[in-house]
Amino acid sequence: MIAPQACARELGLSEFTIHRWIRDGKISAVKLSARCTRIDGNSLADYMAANRFVPGEKEAQPDQLKRQKNTAIELAGQA
User: Fold this and answer.
1) What residues does 29 pair with on adjacent strands?
2) Where are the stretches annotated Disordered (predicted)?
3) What's the pTM?
4) Distance CA 9, CA 5 (A)
5) What beta strand segments (E) does 16-67 contain?
6) pLDDT tens, residue by residue, 1-54
């Protein structure tokens, strides 16, 4: 069980983001008292694995490709 503050610090996120994930049901947590919440480590690991971001793996969106193609054609026509 992990405190939201420690989780936020380790992930480089705000504590608000961690509490939002809990509220939205993205990660499981247990409320031990009015001011004491603990995050399930397995739930957090599963969420992070399913939503990991690896720079450079994002594919260009179709609109972006179309815009780039049109810009290239316009530039070729000006030459």
Assistant:
1) 39
2) 58-79
3) 0.61
4) 6
5) 29-33, 36-39
6) 889 999 888 888 899 999 999 999 999 999 999 889 999 888 888 888 888 766
Contact partners, residue 22, CB within 8 Å, separation at least 6: 4, 28, 29, 37, 39
Torsion of CA 40, 44, 45, 50, to 10 degrees: 140
Specify the DSSP class assigned to residue 34: T
3-state DSSP assignment of residue 55: coil
Spatial distance between the Cα atoms of 27 and 32, rounded to a whole number of angstroms: 16
Are 4 and 39 in contact, with CB atoms under 8 Å apart? yes
Q: How many CB atoms lie within 10 A of CB 66?
A: 11
Tokens 């994002």, residue located: 58
